[in-house]
Amino acid sequence: QVQLQESGPGLVKPSETLSLTCTVSGGSTSRYYWGWIRQPPGKGLEWIGYIYYSGNTNYNASLKSRVTISVDTSKNQFSLKLTSVTAADTAVYYCARPNSGYWYFDLWGRGALVTVSS
Amino acid sequence: DIQMTQSPSSLSASVGDGVTITCRASQSISNYLNWYQQKPGKAPKLLIYAASSLQGGVPSRFSGSGSGTDFTLTISSLQPEDFATYYCQQSYSTPYTFGQGTTVEIE
């Protein structure tokens, strides 16, 4: 079955760039949308954005100026970059697959905790 | 942005009890409403999509209803594995937004 796995640094310094990759195993990134959602410790869920395998993106306006999501279909991976991070960006970051009909998230990675601290 | 408000924020119940969680949207979202279950340290798990459709593999004691602005998630008979936090999510328009969560605790 299709599985998602996040990877990347667990600690990022303030003002630097957070970079995470999600590897899709057991399936292909082609012909699907792929997204990112985050959850600050002890808090609720925030949608970050999604990308289609063709490269079309849709970002949360609250983060749009700092977010880039990209996809590499040859590696079956998609990635998140968040620039100029602050402590408020400390969160568990989930990669997930949105269904393109009703836009629910039916497949999730385990999550990666990223802490922003000097 | 569409605001999603869940009630209650937490509840205590016993195994076998029926439980209802409510989610209200700040504007009409038709049936673009989804429900997730999250256990500590785990990713959310999709339970219900399109307000009332049960995701494959989810027990039939879970059900969803509603349309427009008011929605409910019902667990007909709580099982030990159901103690968790539940989130609603609107997928009517971006940015997709989630409710603040309802924690179901053991009484």
* End-to-end separation of chain B: 36 Å
- The total of beta strands of chain A comes to 11
Q: Looking at the structure, what is the overall shape of chain B? A: globular
Q: Share of helix among residues of chain A? A: under 10%
In a nutshell, what does this entry contain?
Chain A is mainly beta and about 120 residues long. Chain A has strands at about 5, 10, 20-25, 35-40, 45-50, 55-60, 65-70, 75-80, 90-100, 105-110, 110-115.
Structure description:
The complex is a heterodimer of chains A (118) and B (107). Chain A has no helices and 11 strands. In chain A, β7 (67-72) and β8 (77-82) form a beta hairpin. The model of chain A has no long low-confidence stretch (mean pLDDT 96). Chain A has strands at residues 3-7, 11-12, 18-25, 33-39, 46-52, 57-59, 67-72, 77-82, 91-98, 105-108, 112-116. Chain A has 118 residues and is an all-beta fold. By secondary structure, chain B is an all-beta fold. In chain B, strands 2, 4, 5, 6, 9, 10 and 11 form a 7-stranded mixed sheet that branches. In chain B, β9 and β10 form a beta hairpin. Chain A binds chain B through residues 44-47, 58, 60-62, 94, 96, 98-99, 102-106, 108-111, and chain B through 32, 34, 36, 42-46, 49-50, 55, 87, 89, 91, 94-101.
